[in-house]
Amino acid sequence: MGCKLLTLTAVVLSISGAHLASAADMEIKAPALPVPVPAYNWGGLYVGGNIGYGWGAASNPGLSFVDPAAIFAGYFAAGGNVTPNLNPSGLIGGGQIGLNWTLSPSWVAGLVTDFQGSGIKDSATNTVTPPGLLTSLQSNSEQIDWFGTLRAKLGFAQNNWLLYGTGGLAYGRVATSGCICFGAPVGVPLNFTGSNSTTNVGWAVGAGLNYGLTSNWIVGVEYLYVDLGNVSYVETTTNPGALASSVTINNHAAVQIARVSLDYKF
Fold first, then answer.
1. Is the pTM of this model over 0.85?
2. Does the structure show a pLDDT above 60 at 29?
3. Which residues sit opposite 143 in a β-bridge?
4. Per-residue CA distances from 244 to 46, 183, 192 (Å)
């Protein structure tokens, strides 16, 4: 009986020792750590296109006149100045090229220039008959044919997202025209017409949001206020009795724009 007990004990110890040795030989593996995702690289040169919509601030037309023929002073004093106020609007589209620098993991600076074709325009006509005086049709029109900007940018980045503010120089071609058209008592028209097209320099300010789809492709939305200053035109007549008289109309050309963009970053 004693011999059998000793034999059984020896077998148990042998099996236990084998298991302990096997466990000691097993490789202990540490849990795998997540691989860090590299931060999005906003630095570099990019080019792209955009499309959007612009709506104008009020043109607030101002009026002055030269009146040796004594046509306007009494007429305007009696309430005859009704030059229409304009609010131009329309589609825009164009392209941009820019360069960004990464200042830190969260801050990005850049320069960008863009050029836009524009359908932003408005025109209107008012009719007025001051008491006891002639009826006149007074028209006014304004169109921004094209414009561009050269701006600095400063943005706050969170990986693929970039929120930025921007501001700088703006320039553009603005066309204006109008008429003060009278019906003379003898049936001879007395029409004062004029137009002007000029390239003005102004300023632009705004903000935008970009998202990096891939390391090369970026989509964005942007808002800008573009102010191109004042544009004047002089209305004159071919009527022999009023050749020395003229009216100058002055419109303010400013527009707000909202657009979407797609850029390729090199």
1. no
2. no
3. 121, 175
4. 56, 19, 11
